Amino acid sequence: MTELLESCFPSCAVLILLFSSSSSLYSTSPSCKLWRRFSLNEMHKPGDVVLGGLFEVHYTSVFPELTFTTDFDILGFRHAMTMAFAVEEINRNSNLLPNLTLGYSLFDNCGALVVGFSGALSLASSPEMQFLLEEDCEGPPPVVGIVGDHYSTFSIAISSVLGLYKMPIVSYFSTCSCLSDHQRFPSFFRTIPSDAFQVRAMIQILKHFGWTWVGLLVSDDDYGLHVARSFQSDLVQSGQGCLAYLEVLPWDGDPSEIRRIVHVIKESTARVLMVFAHEIHMIQLMDEVVGQNVTGRQWVASEALTTAAVLQVPHFMPYLRGMLGIAIRRGEIPGLREFLRQVRPDRHSRDTETSMVRQFWEYIFQCKFDPPGLVEAGEVLCTGQEAIEDADTEFLDLSNLRPEYNVYKAVYALAYALDDALRCEPGRGPFSAHSCAENQRLQPWQLVYSLEKVNFTTSFGDQVSFDENGDVLPIYDIMNWLWLPDGRTKVQNVGEVKGSPFRGEELTLYEDKIFWNFESNKVILVSSTQQVDSMECTSCPEDFWSSPQRDHCVPKKTEFLSYHEPLGICLTAASLLGTVISAVVLGIFIHHRSTPVVRANNSELSFLLLVSLKLCFLCSLLFIGRPRLWTCQLRHAAFGISFVLCVSCILVKTMVVLAVFRASKPGGGAILKWFGAVQQRGTVLVLTCVQAAICVAWIVSATPEPQKNTQYHNDRIVYECAMGSTIGFSALLGYIGLLAILSFLLAFLARNLPDNFNEAKLITFSMLIFSAVWVAFVPAYINSPGKYADAVEVFAILASSFGLLVALFGPKCYIILFKPNKNTKKAIISRDSIKKKPNQQHENSSKVMWTASQVSLCSFLCLLSLDSHFYFLECSPLHSCRMQEQFNLSGMHRAGDVVLGGLFEIHFFSVFPDLSFSSKPQQPTCHG
C-alpha cells in the first residue's frame, strides 16, 4: 500500500494543483480557492510573508480517513516549535526583514508520505480554504518557502513536484545524496550534510583505525540504498578495505529476514559493523541480536542512530556499548528553553482538534480537552494551565540540540534570502530588465535565486552557505557510547569531521576518551589474512579474489564473449551461415549474369553489395574471443566501413532507379549523364572513404584498447574493449544512419514506379528493417554489461545483414531459381498492371505515356547492358530488346571504334508500326 501511494501520489499532487489553479482561473470571485482541503494536524501564525514547515509529530496515520494515532513524537514536535521560535526571533530583529512580519504554517507528516505530500500541497496552494489576493488573482503566494521534510524519500517526492514551480525547500534532516542533483531538484536546499559526505567521513574513521574488513547494513529506502552504492564505490576507490557482506534491512520488519541477517552477522569473520538505518529498523535488528547473543562487534552508526535515545536501554547496551557514530552538528539556541516553557494550547493554536499543541498537551499530561460530557470514565479533563516542567518528558532537555539546530539554520536561511530579495534597488535587480522582487508579487523562484547566494554566521559561530548543489558546508560530530556503572548511557563527543573545499575531509579524534566494547578496552588488530576473526583484511591483487573462507586469495574468473560458450557458438555459426549464403547468392548472380533479372537490377552494384554483405557478416567475428589490441582497433573500423559500403551501394542503386524514370519524362534525358557506371563507382568510393576517415581519426586520437573491468562483479574480471572515444563511435553510427535514412527516403519516393523494373519497394522495406535493428541496438547496448554488450552488437550486425540480404536478394533468387518464365525481357519490361479507367480518353493517354516511358527505358537498359553485341536494338510491341540487322527509328549516327549512344526527345510520341509521327495515339510498336 505504501509503495503504491509513494509511486502514484506525485501524479495525483500535480492534478490537484492543476485543478486548484483552474478553479481559480474560471472563478468569478476575486479570490483563489482550493479544490479541496486536506484534514491535517497543523499550526499557523499569520504574517506578511508565510513560511511553511513539515515535521514528524506523529509516527503513523490510519488510511483512508487520515486520522492520527496516539504515537506522539516529542522530539518531532520540538523541531516544529523550534521553527516557531526562530520566526518569532526574526520578527523581533530590526536588522533582518524590517517592516515585514513573518508568519508560519506548520504541518504534521505523521511519518507517512501521503500525509506529508498533502501538507506540502496545502502549503503550496494555501493553508486556508480561501486566500484573498488581488482582484486579478495575482500577488504573493500563500507560502514562499518550506522547511522540511524529515525523510529523504518524502523530500524526493515533494521536491519533484514543487520543484516544477521553483518552490524553495530547505530540509533539516534529508541526507540522500541523490538530492544533490540540482538539475532534478532545482529548488531543494538542506542544512544537513548529504550522505556522500557521511560515507566519506565513515571511511575516514575506518582508515584511522585500520579497519579494512567490515560489514554494512542499510535500510530498504532511498536513504539506505543510495548509501550502499556510494559506500561500495568510495571504499573501492580509497583502497582502504573491503566489505564482508552487505545486507538490506526490510522496511516491514519481516522476522524471518531479520533472523537471517543476524545469522550472517554472527557467522561472519568481520568484527566491525556499520549501520545506515532508521531507529525502528535498528530496534527490530537489536531485538534479534539480543536473542542470538551476537557479542564482540564494534558498531559504527550513521547520524540517524548515533543520538537515538530509544536504543540506549539496558538490555541493548551489552551489545552496543562502545559504539562509534557520527552525529549532526550540535548547536546552541539561546532563548529556546524559555520559549518552549511558554508553549500552551491557548497561545499557539486555534481551539481545534487538529491542533498540534493540543495533541502535545493531551499526550504529555494524559488528559482530554473534550467537553466534560464527552470525556470517558477514568479520563482527566485538560485545563490548559498544567506546568510543562512537571511532565516527565525530554521536551525541555536542550543539552543536545542537533536536528533543532538545523531547523533553526533553515529558517534563518530563508529569512536572509527573503531579506536579500526585498532589499534590491529598483532598476538594478538581477531579473528581467533589471527588475527586483516585490513584496506583493514575490515569486518562489526569486527566493531560490537569493537562497543560492545566502552566506551568514549563526550566533553559535557556524557559517551557513550553500554550494552549487544546494548542500551546506558539511560538518559532523563523532560520538561514542559510554555505559556507566549505574546503568545509564552517556553519549560523549570524541572528535569531529568537517569538509574542506581544498583539503577534503578533515578528521579530528580524541582516542583517549573512547570507550571500547572489548575487555581490553581496545580493538586488537592483526595484520595477516590467515588469522581467523581478524579486524583487518589485506586486499588481494587485482586479478585475485578472496576465498570463500576469507583466508587466502584465489584467481578471479575471467569473462568475455568466447567461442567456446553457447552464446558465442550460436553467434559464430550465424555469422558463417550469413557469409556462406552471401557467397551462394553471389555465385547465382554471376552464373545468371546475362539474364534480365540480373541485368535490370544494376548487376555491377549488386555484385559489390553482395561482397559488402559478406564483409558485414565476417566482421562480427572480431567481437568474439578475448579482446586484443588489434581486434579492439579493427572491430569497429571493419564494421563501420563494411556497412557504409553496403548502404552506399543501396543508395546509389536507388538514385539510379529514380534517374531512369526521371529520364523517361519530357526533357529529362540529360540527367542520365550523371549516372553512368563510372559515376556510380565513384560515388560508392567517396561515401566509403568518408567513413574510413572517421575510423582513422578515431583510432589515432583515442584508440580503443582492451581493458580489465572489475566494476560489474567483484569475483570476476570482465575483459572488454574500452571505447576510447564515445564521439568517434557516435560519429561512425551516425554516418551509417544518415546514409540509411537517405536511402529510405529516396526509395520511398520511388516506391510507386513501374513494379517489374523498380526495386525501390524492396529497398524501402530493407531500410526499414535496417533502421529498426539499429534504433533498438542503442538502448540495449548501453544497458548491457561486459560481454553482453558485445553480444548485442554482434546480434545487431547479423540481424541487419540478414535483413538486407533477404529483402533485396530473396525475391530475385526466387525468380531465377524457381520462376525462370518470369526471368525474360518481356516479363521485366511489360507492365500488365495498368488498370483500365472508365474514361477511354484518359486510358489512351495513360497508354501513350507509359509507351513513351517504356521506349526510353528499353533503350536505356540496353545501353546499360554493356553488351558489345547490342549495337542495334529493337523495342518490339512486347517491349523486349533484341538485336536487329536494320532499324527504323528516327536518329543520327556516326561510325567509330567506340560508339556513344544518345537519347533525346525530338517528337512527343510516335505512331506505330510505321513510325510516322503524329499526335494521335495508336497501338505502340517500336523498331530500332
Overview of the molecule:
It is found in: Cell membrane. Keywords: Cell membrane, G-protein coupled receptor, Glycoprotein, Membrane, Receptor, Signal, Transducer, Transmembrane, Transmembrane helix. This protein is of the alpha/beta class and 928 residues long. The protein has three domains: 42-193 and 334-354 and 399-465, Rossmann fold (3-Layer(aba) Sandwich); 195-331 and 474-523 and 540-556, Rossmann fold, CATH 3.40.50.2300; 566-825, Rhopdopsin 7-helix transmembrane proteins, CATH 1.20.1070. Helices cover 43% and strands 14% of the residues. It has 25 helices and 31 strands. Strands 12-11-13-14-15-20-21-22 form an eight-stranded mixed sheet, with helices on both faces. Helix 16 packs parallel to helix 23 and helix 18 (603-619) packs antiparallel against helix 19 (629-663). The protein starts with a helix and ends in an 11-residue tail after the last strand. The model is unreliable at 1-36, 61-70, 127-140, 523-528, 831-887 and 909-928 (pLDDT under 50).
Question: Can you lay out the helices and strands and say which pair or pack?
Answer:
Layout: H1 2-25, E1 31-33, E2 42-45, E3 49-55, E4 61-62, E5 67-68, H2 74-92, E6 102-108, H3 113-125, E7 130-132, E8 145-147, H4 152-162, E9 169-171, E10 188-190, H5 195-209, E11 213-219, H6 222-238, E12 242-249, H7 255-267, E13 272-276, H8 279-292, E14 298-301, H9 303-306, H10 317-320, E15 324-328, H11 336-341, H12 345-348, H13 356-365, E16 367-368, E17 380-381, H14 403-422, H15 444-451, E18 455-457, E19 463-465, E20 475-483, E21 489-500, E22 504-509, E23 544-546, E24 553-555, E25 557-559, H16 566-591, H17 596-600, H18 603-619, H19 629-663, H20 677-701, E26 705-709, E27 716-722, H21 726-749, H22 760-782, H23 787-818, H24 825-829, H25 840-864, E28 873-875, E29 881-883, E30 910-911, E31 916-917
Parallel strand pairs: 3-6, 3-8, 8-9, 9-10, 11-12, 11-13, 13-14, 14-15, 16-17, 25-27
Antiparallel strand pairs: 1-7, 2-6, 4-5, 15-20, 18-19, 20-21, 21-22, 23-24, 26-27, 28-29, 30-31
Helix pairs in contact: 1-3, 1-4, 2-14, 3-4, 5-6, 7-8, 14-15, 16-18, 16-23, 18-19, 18-23, 19-20, 19-21, 20-21, 21-22, 22-23
